[in-house]
Amino acid sequence: MASIPLLLMGCGGVGRQLLHHVISCRPLHSQQGVRLRVVGVCDSKSMVAIPDVLTSEFRDDFLLQLCEIKSNGSSFLDLTKTGLALIDCSASSETIGLLSQVINLDGCVVLANKKPLTSPLEYYDKLVSQPRRLRHESTVGAGLPVIATINRMLSSGDPINRIIGSLSGTLGYVMSEVEGGRPFSEVVTSAKKLGFTEPDPRDDLGGMDVARKALILARLLGHRIELDSIKVESLYPEKMGPANIPLDEFLANGLPLLDEAIQKRIESAASNGNVLRYVCLIEESRCEVGLQEVSKDSALGRLQGSDNVVEIYSRCYSKQPLVIQGAGAGNDTTAVGVLADILDIQDMFRHSPSAA
Amino acid sequence: MASIPLLLMGCGGVGRQLLHHVISCRPLHSQQGVRLRVVGVCDSKSMVAIPDVLTSEFRDDFLLQLCEIKSNGSSFLDLTKTGLALIDCSASSETIGLLSQVINLDGCVVLANKKPLTSPLEYYDKLVSQPRRLRHESTVGAGLPVIATINRMLSSGDPINRIIGSLSGTLGYVMSEVEGGRPFSEVVTSAKKLGFTEPDPRDDLGGMDVARKALILARLLGHRIELDSIKVESLYPEKMGPANIPLDEFLANGLPLLDEAIQKRIESAASNGNVLRYVCLIEESRCEVGLQEVSKDSALGRLQGSDNVVEIYSRCYSKQPLVIQGAGAGNDTTAVGVLADILDIQDMFRHSPSAA
């Protein structure tokens, strides 16, 4: 039986959903010889941990209440004596010191949080110094097996030379709707009403979330680059940014001014037999985020709705890419991706080859 | 440093390709803290193992020659004292006893061979009794991450209720070409000339290879079924089977008789706005292999050429499936899938959490 002490950081939507899954999967995990032992929960301000972190665990019913509770800190580093999995479902860039410390102490780290992996290389390198002790599937494409697949390919010597993907459900939806003839401003406004965008849609349209995902993928492929070296195309000009005009004015007067240019680019793509997609593109010496023309017969070109899609080209997948497609956002799918990562490190918690 | 002693069964195309990859990836694995130590190679008749299997390993140059050599047997079960990974790239159903023995002795098993997993449940159950010690990605879709993804989803409590896929590159190619208007007989004949089929194309057209893959997937989902309980649609009638007419006669006089019926079914599908695909379909109480109408807007319906595609529906992927697509055959992609599996079990060979 592998007993994995878990410390959960981040008690928002994903963190709470994850706890629900941990509890509801107990019978399943028991069959698999794994016990997930939640020993602490923390957010940016505080932490609650059980007094005896080495042998005890929170009761399931108490655990669910815990997420809501603010309490005083407690030391947990003792845990690393027997191994610890630190689960970061927060959206903070301030967890990286703690994460690196856990890795240093031979603990394991599972991330849904993109920030630590998009921090400066100096910090990133420390975090990934023990690659088998780090899992972060949900940082790109939520539960879609993008990272796991790339890692499988790389570790088996199938070098990847190109990744192109639509990694924003919002922008995927917007671009496929606009292609059907609806004005850009109308599509963005209705996407906001449907809850498909951030409260301020400029957070999606600016492309920085996609850029973070692109950086995570590029670094996996060995690119030694920083976030600010990625070429990011924003779908609105800087003068319409949050620093210059308020949201209401952007929606009412700014957005419609963008319709014509987008329409022209779509027509230009169509005249080449292509469609326009907002993609991340990673090649040997290139990492870009923005609008690109792609063949309408490719998986990317045929994309409809808010699915994510990633095309991976390698030695084995040279003419036709390996394609992974599906829903790439949402608390539930993200939490499922995190839980799959936790189960994936279980062998670290079996202390000898014959302990199973 | 995790040192993994490997015993390789099967010295055909995949086995040899795998050895080449093992050798060419040595610098990469060394960076990852893994040493793959090949201690034995065997085929159905014989085995060559180094005298001191516990500490030594074959030299790389000798290893490549070994595949061609027939030699007398040697005992290798001593190996399991320190852990052993048995790699089965053969196509034999007779390895299952040995594989189960290795699992029993706390060794690990990696399969490209489908036969052990499609044997009667009595044997299957023994083989999968230690699921963490078994990997078999390449048994379905070669290097495509189909099994890894299904296992991730199941272990994280995202129940799968439907899998539908095109798992034969040959039949995928045939059905997409026939859709374009070419007669079935002409497509099969040219596919044979292009080397896309088995020497006797009836081995593909009969559907048994797809049925084996369907059984592997169905059993992963918990179906307690045997190979002969799967409904398999053959694309030729029994009277044209290898037991009744020779290959030449089948190609010259049998095949053309099948054109009209296939054409009619394609037209019938088109009149419903669908296309015809040769699929495996697994649902809660159903496991079938054969022609099915699918929406032409689905990933399956849009499939062209010889790619495999798998659509997975679950709680998280309910309206739109999780889709995995790409080349699903070939020695190289299969060997890469096997090597990724081997790297995936490396944590079993680190004897304590702090041994990394």
Give a structural overview.
The structure is a homodimer of 356-residue chains. By secondary structure, chain A is an alpha/beta fold. Chain A has two domains: 2-141 and 332-349, Rossmann fold; 160-327, 2-Layer Sandwich (Dihydrodipicolinate Reductase, domain 2), CATH 3.30.360.10. The first copy, chain A, has helices spanning 13-24, 26-31, 60-66, 96-104, 121-127, 146-155, 169-179, 184-193, 202-205, 208-220, 247-254, 259-271, 331-344; strands at residues 2-9, 34-42, 47-49, 85-88, 108-111, 134-135, 160-166, 231-232, 274-283, 286-295, 308-314, 322-326. In chain A, the strands form two sheets. Chain A has a six-stranded mixed sheet with strand order 3-2-1-4-5-6, sandwiched between helices. In chain A, strands 8-10-9-7-11-12 form a six-stranded mixed sheet. The longest helix of chain A has 14 residues, at 331-344. Chain A starts with a strand and ends in a 12-residue tail after the last helix. At the A-B interface, helix 6, strand 12 and helix 13 of A face helix 6, strand 12 and helix 13 of B. Strand 12 of chain A pairs antiparallel with strand 12 of chain B, so a sheet runs across the interface.
